[in-house]
Amino acid sequence: MSQQPSEEKSLPPSSKKLRDARKKGQVAKSADLVTAMVMLACTLYIAISVNDIIARVQGLIDSTARLYTEPFDTLWPQLMTQAGEVLLLSVLPLVGLTLLVIVLTNIVVLQGFVFSTEPVQPKPENIDPVQGVKRIFSVRGLVEFLKSLFKMVALAVALVIVYRLGLQSLMESSRCGYPCVQGTFLALLQPLVITALIAFLLVGAFDVLLQRWLFERDQRMTKTEQKRERKDQEGDPTMNQARRKQRREMHELNAKIGVQYSSLMIGTADGWLVGIRYIRGETPVPLVTCKASPDQAASLLASAAPRRVPRVADPRLAELIAKRAGNGDPVPDGTFQAVADMLVAAKLI
């Protein structure tokens, strides 16, 4: 039996899918930007500390040369001390700076810390030759090839230009000894380093945007996935629609608050006064539309008079309803029958 073709992933990923992917360690990574920032930081460190590093290494070499003229037992501790200084003051700061730049750059690119063991877990597709060939000839593989090609071409062009212009000077500098050779070599090396840094930084900045686009492209969803996710989050659509309809009806009922929506007034001008609304087919139960304490009852009653709202003088029932229900609430259970009798007497039912 032939299998049905897979559904096209044409919808953008939801925030939930991106969060779940992040928990699994699946994020947009940019190794090129990390490499570029490490190169920049290390180059600046070496440029600032080059004189101190050369002095320490030169001192260690000079001390080593003294092994031919001085006793080994007396010179060995001094050599160990100088070697430790070279390691601690020259190499370890470079290693520490590299680690710091890697961590900070990844935090910026990944937009926070990401920790998951799932990417390092062995998976069959990682050793599948067919999947490996697909990855090589995929869009991501083509992009990686083009980035590497751009960096190689940029460095090759810079190398050709620099050495075509400076090769003659480098050959002639040997006549005046080591200082001239060193100066000429550094003058040729500087544009190469600057070109490499610019090329790597440009590729790294472009790679961040590209990796995010590729990641969102890989995380796209089908319509079935979107419907399933929405159902898992919000529940069954039919039940949700019924609940929304019920909430909308209750909101509409609760919104009709005030003496102008009252069908019946219960109470007196010198006691508690409440307004009741009941419309057949609209309100399932009588609702409280307004209420007033004894010191405000006269004002509320005066507002109801122009509207010719029927009134039943029962201050005790009015007080019971007012203290147990708020505006928009159904009448309390213990008062339902009494209110119903009043509505029947007023020919509202």
Oligomer: single chain
Give the percentage of residues in beta strands: under 5%
| Structural class by helix and strand composition | mainly alpha
N- to C-terminal separation?
67 Å
The main β sheet shows up as: 4 strands, mixed
Tell me the series of helices and strands, N- to C-terminal: HHHHHHHHEEEHEHH
Strand order of the largest sheet: 3-2-1-4
As a percent range, the share of helical residues equals 55-70%
**Structural domain tally:** 3
Parts with pLDDT < 50 across at least 5 consecutive residues: 1-5
Extended strand count? 4
Q: Could you tell me the mean pLDDT?
A: 80
Region (Disordered): 1-22, 221-247
Function: Required for formation of the rod structure in the basal body of the flagellar apparatus. Together with FliI and FliH, may constitute the export apparatus of flagellin.
Keywords: Bacterial flagellum protein export, Membrane, Protein transport, Transmembrane, Transmembrane helix, Transport
Family: Belongs to the type III secretion exporter family.
Report on this structure.
By secondary structure, the chain is mainly α. The chain has 11 helices and 4 strands; from the N terminus they run ααααααααβββαβαα. It has a 4-stranded mixed sheet. Helix 2 (31-65) runs antiparallel to helix 6.
SSE layout:
Elements: H1 15-23, H2 31-65, H3 72-110, H4 129-136, H5 139-172, H6 178-218, H7 223-234, H8 237-255, E1 264-267, E2 273-277, E3 287-292, H9 297-304, E4 311-312, H10 315-324, H11 336-345
Parallel strand pairs: 1-4
Antiparallel strand pairs: 1-2, 2-3
